[in-house]
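for the writeup, i need someone to sanity check this before i put it in the appendix. the sequnce is what the collaborator sent (i think, or maybe the updated version? ugh). structure was predicted straight from it, no edits. if anything looks off just tell me and ill rerun, i have time this weekend
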Amino acid sequence: MTILVLGNSNIFRRKVYFALKKIKVPIEVASRRNINKNFKIKKSYTSYKKALNDTKAKIVYISLINSEHFNWAVKALNKKKHVIIDKPITLNFNHTKKLVSLAKKNNLLLSEAIVFQKDLRFKNVTKKIDLKKTTHIYCKFHIPKLDKKNFRNFKKYGGGCFHDMSPYAAYLIYYFFNKKKYLIDYKKSKNGFLIKSQSKNIFLDASFSFNDKYKNEIIIYNKSKKYFIDYSFSPPINKILNLEISGSIKQKKRKIVFSRQNVFYTYFSEIFKIISKKRYNSYYEKIEKIAEIKKKFS
């Protein structure tokens, strides 16, 4: 099943390409910049419009600047293509609802490429914890100052910390508070934003920022245990990563070691299975719920 990638983004070059290569999916790329000569590309285009018109690929992966996500997703869905979009799926609630409606109308997959929850460490922790018990979740995703030319510095391109990182916050709330009554408190910080959310027994405290000292971690306290996940929101594909678990003072901290993983590989493997089974309703529902969560604190 061939996939057409619109854009030659950093995330495509570092992770997506290698995930698709491992699955042995033929890749076409439409790019305004040179494509890595070492990449095995079935066909390349210099025009996004020509790529959509000429391709026989059934799936389009949109990896463009944020402000272009909605328009190219509409065009791809109208071409009867399944669509996957880098986060954020769109820049506003109404655009997201329109994409879901169009995908439903054409019976096509629509997915936002949020993949941190596919990390084996995250899965391991969420299997261990009991969300019926008091649970405290602390998250920090702070990144250093971006290059001046990076589109994320410009509002007209859909840049800024909120658009770039709010999908992580929304997915955390969706995962830990799904089907629960909860409150959300949103505040702007110097370089980003803070999110606090709580239900009867679950408490989430998360901060996201640009132009700050690097932090990328999730810490969960549940039943007298502490779980620490480093590089949690963007696990590298070339590092052996650990899950740290500690309890009372008398208990020693222990580490569970995980082999190198590319969470995009897990994500795409699931996507292709869903497409083969033509079961898209759960994806529509998730996107709509995530959009509603973001709307509450936007």
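The chain has two domains: 3-113+265-297, 120-260. The mean pLDDT is 95.
thx in advance!!
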